[in-house]
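lol forgot to send this yesterday, sorry. struct tokens for the thing we talked abt
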């Protein structure tokens, strides 16, 4: 151990980080030179919570072992003054005092067997009373006949080894009350547990992939140094890593080589520790707050917000920033402090911020898209929406009405938009405009939807080769009649969108998501913030509101669609004052249900649709209810066959519904028969699959 050390803060703990590079000793408490130096450093830094030895690997003492060590050193510091001793006891005392400074196990063994003379017994007893209470004493006493002295060091002072290139920290399990769940992700163990006095469950990762021998770790370190001399080329990363490992250790067997290549790749070109989180299908969001050296938080599907045991250093955050800059081809530095990008293969959207927007350092939020796209049926099954509301949405889409989906952050807007798209009859062309692709475009396409995706640059990005949302929108309008979908309405493009809607240039439906809470908020944002004229805003036919709901004392948040509201056409300046909104469905919190409004027959929008379709209001309601009943039947049948909740069946069922309507051929649809025929087909379908 060299004399160099620094204090580093990781999470809420302070570590003495000792530089052991170039030292001939082995960074071990069992080494007398190391121990003397270490004891001094601990005394000089009484506030330290633990110690890290930095060699070609990092060695971190277990927290409990550090406490044992501190307790021992405290006892050494409290040694009483020695009185005049007999010659023999004088020698014994010298040995004790010397040994205590450099060899804790050896000195305890010596003390256990110590026999003083009668005259000096009192003094030695006072020393013994200092140590007999300590944990090291008990551990040495308990194990001394089973193990050799150097083995005792390993039993008492346990440590964890991390490769030197690892720039994150994993905390050990602390104050566990109850394990909630355990599973494996890419070879690493995940345990979620409740901990004492912690408001969140702890998401604990144990990285088995880094349990390599010291020889292998040294090899990896060399490989990292070699990597620095190679061109950083993402496409060839695996080949580069293979070449280096091959050159450095040609003698290794194929399996070991593969393991080392993967580790080298993941911690150089890949996403490092974060990859475990990115690959966990149970996580929805991952939060890394600036300036680093803090816990990473995640949002888990079952346990909601969890604190992980992962702490990333600012070095690790810098590595991630470089990786995302390369991945996106977008700048991310002081002049461009916001980054929006996506990791396609892992279906993850990244939002990064750095100085000067943050006070210091870099932070990231990762939003993972549901690998299985949501459908209205799935939303009915998990109570996000009632069957009646799903029937209404399906009816409004079929009637080519424009809708905006609103809600606070993470309330499910984009998920709802994706599910709504699955309801669009396949004869329509869909054009989506997004800066980071989140909508299930590929899946919709695979299921027969005619969908064109226009990728645009983020509104926060000042320069890039991608087109702006507004340009994309203008192009989309030139493409002719289509369902126009704006992933998120937030910038300049809003004006063009609403203008297009107002003059009916888009032909069919326009859809988008927008942050807000109520239809009034949406109006306020669009008209007052985005400067769209109120008359143009009225081109929106309905606003669907999403919100996280809490029931009773339960702290769990449940996502719900809490309203479907019509935007009426005959008002001029303020929809609130002029009664410009008409709730089509109203949420009843005590029953947790979204019901058709009692006065639904008075809806101008439904009356208008009825008139255009040449049907009565009764038929409008029958059509909505028939759609609701069909969806309810699908959800019921899905209890035995989960596939029925998927996107593929959602598209198939819409096609079937339209086919059955067409088959009836009459001007007036017999809805009862329609539902009967659909249920028959569903039964048959379920029997076949
Ligand atoms: N009903 C639901 N039940 C459980 N999870 C849901 C539900 N709806 C959406 N989610 C999940 O919630 C997360 C956030 O959803 P989504 O991205 O749709 O929200 P958003 O409102 O668009 O967020 P943002 O404001 O960031 O754009 C996603 O992981 C999604 O899969
Ligand atoms: Mg969204």
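and heres what i got for the seq, position by position
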């Amino acid at each position: 151990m060299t004399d160099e050390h620094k204090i580093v803060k990781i999470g809420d703990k302070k570590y003495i980080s000792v530089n052991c590079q170039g030292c001939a000793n082995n960074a071990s408490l069992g080494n007398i030179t190391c121990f003397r130096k270490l004891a001094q450093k601990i005394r000089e830094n009484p506030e330290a919570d633990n110690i890290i030895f930095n060699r070609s690997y990092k060695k971190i003492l277990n927290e409990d072992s550090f406490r044992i060590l501190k307790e021992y050193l405290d006892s050494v510091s409290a040694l009483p003054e020695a009185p005049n001793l007999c010659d023999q006891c004088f020698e014994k005392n010298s040995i004790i005092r010397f040994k205590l400074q450099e060899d804790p196990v050896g000195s305890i063994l010596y003390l256990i067997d110590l026999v003083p003379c009668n005259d000096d017994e009192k003094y030695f007893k006072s020393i013994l009373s200092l140590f007999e209470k300590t944990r090291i004493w008990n551990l040495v006493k308990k194990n001394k006949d089973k193990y050799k002295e150097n083995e005792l060091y390993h039993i008492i002072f346990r440590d964890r080894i991390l490769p030197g290139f690892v720039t994150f920290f994993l905390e050990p399990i602390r104050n566990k009350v109850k394990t909630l769940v355990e599973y494996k992700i890419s070879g690493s163990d995940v345990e979620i547990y409740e901990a004492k006095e912690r408001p969140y469950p702890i998401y604990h990762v144990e990285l088995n992939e880094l349990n390599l021998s010291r020889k292998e770790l040294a090899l990896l370190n060399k490989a990292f140094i070699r990597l620095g001399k190679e061109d950083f080329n993402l496409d060839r990363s695996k080949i580069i890593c293979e070449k280096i490992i091959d050159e450095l250790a040609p003698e290794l067997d194929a399996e070991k080589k593969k393991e080392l290549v993967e580790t080298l790749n993941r911690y150089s070109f890949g996403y490092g520790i974060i990859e475990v989180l990115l690959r966990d299908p149970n996580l929805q969001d991952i939060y890394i707050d600036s300036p680093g050296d803090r816990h990473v938080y995640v949002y888990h599907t079952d346990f909601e917000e969890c604190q992980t045991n992962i702490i990333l250093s600012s070095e690790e955050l810098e590595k991630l920033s470089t990786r995302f800059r390369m991945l996106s081809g977008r700048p991310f530095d002081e002049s461009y402090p916001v980054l929006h990008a996506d990791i396609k293969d892992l279906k993850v959207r990244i939002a990064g911020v750095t100085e000067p927007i943050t006070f210091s350092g870099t932070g990231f939020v990762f939003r993972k898209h549901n690998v299985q796209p949501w459908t209205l049926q799935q939303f009915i099954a998990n109570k996000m929406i009632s069957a009646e509301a799903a029937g209404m949405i399906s009816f409004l889409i079929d009637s080519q009405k424009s809708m905006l989906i609103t809600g606070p952050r993470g309330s499910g807007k984009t998920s709802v938009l994706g599910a709504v798209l699955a309801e669009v009859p396949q004869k329509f062309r869909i054009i989506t405009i997004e800066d980071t692709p989140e909508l299930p475009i590929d899946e919709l396409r695979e299921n027969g939807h005619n969908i064109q995706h226009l990728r645009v640059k983020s509104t926060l990005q000042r320069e890039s080769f991608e087109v702006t949302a507004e340009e994309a929108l203008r192009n989309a309008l030139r493409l002719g009649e289509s369902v126009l979908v704006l992933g998120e309405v937030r910038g300049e493009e809003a004006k063009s969108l609403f203008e297009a809607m107002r003059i009916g240039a888009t032909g069919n439906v326009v859809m988008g998501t927008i942050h807000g809470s109520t239809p009034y908020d949406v109006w306020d944002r669009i008209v007052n913030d985005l400067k769209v004229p109120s008359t143009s805003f009225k081109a929106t036919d309905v606003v669907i509101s999403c919100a996280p709901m809490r029931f009773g004392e339960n702290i769990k948040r449940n996502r719900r669609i809490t309203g479907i509201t019509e935007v009426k056409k005959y008002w001029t300046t303020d929809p609130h004052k002029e009664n410009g909104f008409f709730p089509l469905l109203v949420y009843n919190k005590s029953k947790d249900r979204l019901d058709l409004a009692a006065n639904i027959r008075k809806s101008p929008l439904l009356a208008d649709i009825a008139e255009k379709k040449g049907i009565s209001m009764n038929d409008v309601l029958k059509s909505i209810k028939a759609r609701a009943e069909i969806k309810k039947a699908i959800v019921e049948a899905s209890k035995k066959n989960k596939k029925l909740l998927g996107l593929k069946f959602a598209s198939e069922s819409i096609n079937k519904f339209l086919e059955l309507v067409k088959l009836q051929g009459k001007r007036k649809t017999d809805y009862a028969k329609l539902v009967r025929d659909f249920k028959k087909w569903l039964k048959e379908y379920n029997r076949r699959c």
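The pocket of adenosine-5'-triphosphate (ligand 1) is lined by residues 284, 367-368, 370, 379, 382, 384, 407, 409-415, 513, 559 (CB under 6 Å). anyway ping me if u want another try
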